[in-house]
């Protein structure tokens, strides 16, 4: 969504922000007393660039457009130009996040294997090169990196690299069991190696790549666990990153949208800024107040997650989308139940019946009528129009159409296919003798 230009123009989406929009956003951030930290992927998660034919030759493995090959000078040039264009619009930023997480295919291509160098060394050398370039080119800017590629390193190797003086790691865990993914000995060596560290949880995403509503309880527990974990060394933690995912990667479908995730964002921000994971009741009370919920509302984190209708007593911006998502989940459950009942549970519209055009028309009409099959298709089509109208107040037409195509059209097609199959089956007037094959 960043407005890259020149040789990088095709990296941007066709509906990317304009430079003017980026500057307006940064101006608003400044006026609010906030600070923007851009993130530029520089190693893994580069599908948005490496999927293109003009950058295909820079892939670590040709079949998988995730990572650049760190042994190619042209890969360094690509990353530096991306950084240059982003930093040109973020002149006052004190930090630049350079990604570097989940480099799944490391030291795998011919160039890298011919170097006969350990994968850890390849990673450390490349990230060092990127970080040194940033620190020498952009005065006062500190690179941040995700920490996961370093978690398996030995303390000796970690301290032998230059990274301790070049970057600040962002240690991410999105569950409530921090110690399972970041054992205390790993944390201990991070403390000894780096001047400062950051930690990261999530307020949306990080659960299921097709989720439509955030699991508020899970995310809240994630932040509670982080606060407890860092309470022993709070002076060494430079920041808390609260991630919000819109896709799991460039090729994935949309997951939780931002408007219905505002309550989760707000609740977790209240928790983090309180720095007191035990003061849940006070946080709940302030949370409901800021969401402009009715004083009589009995909404809790549990009901908020399990019953989207409970939001009906609140008037935060995005409440209409939250309710819409709840209605979608209910409608999808109804459609899936209809489909499963007709094609799997009952014995008159299974794959076998449809294949051989062999069924009881009366049974089929009874089933379809009792399950409201005809009215359900109309309901889905009306919901499609309602979704377009509500989402259009928050997103451009491309996002609206994408969400509808990913979520509502499959229900519509499923029902249309059932209706067409039923019409074919009930119009048959005579049937063959068994066996049918």
Summarize the SSE layout with pairings.
Layout: H1 19-31, H2 47-50, E1 59-61, E2 64-68, H3 73-89, E3 95-97, H4 110-113, H5 119-137, E4 142-146, H6 155-160, H7 163-166, E5 168-172, H8 178-181, H9 184-193, E6 197-204, H10 216-230, E7 237-244, H11 262-274, H12 280-290, H13 301-306, H14 319-345, H15 351-356, H16 361-370, H17 373-391, H18 397-407, H19 409-426
Parallel strand pairs: 3-4, 4-5, 5-6, 6-7
Antiparallel strand pairs: 1-2
Describe the fold and architecture:
There is one protein chain. The chain is an alpha/beta fold. It contains 19 helices and seven strands. The chain has helices spanning 19-31, 47-50, 73-89, 110-113, 119-137, 155-160, 163-166, 178-181, 184-193, 216-230, 262-274, 280-290, 301-306, 319-345, 351-356, 361-370, 373-391, 397-407, 409-426, and strands at residues 59-61, 64-68, 95-97, 142-146, 168-172, 197-204, 237-244. It has a five-stranded parallel sheet with strand order 3-4-5-6-7. A two-stranded antiparallel sheet has the order 1-2. Helix 10 runs parallel beside helix 11, helix 11 (262-274) packs across helix 12 and helix 17 packs antiparallel against helix 19 (409-426). It is globular. The relative contact order is 0.06.
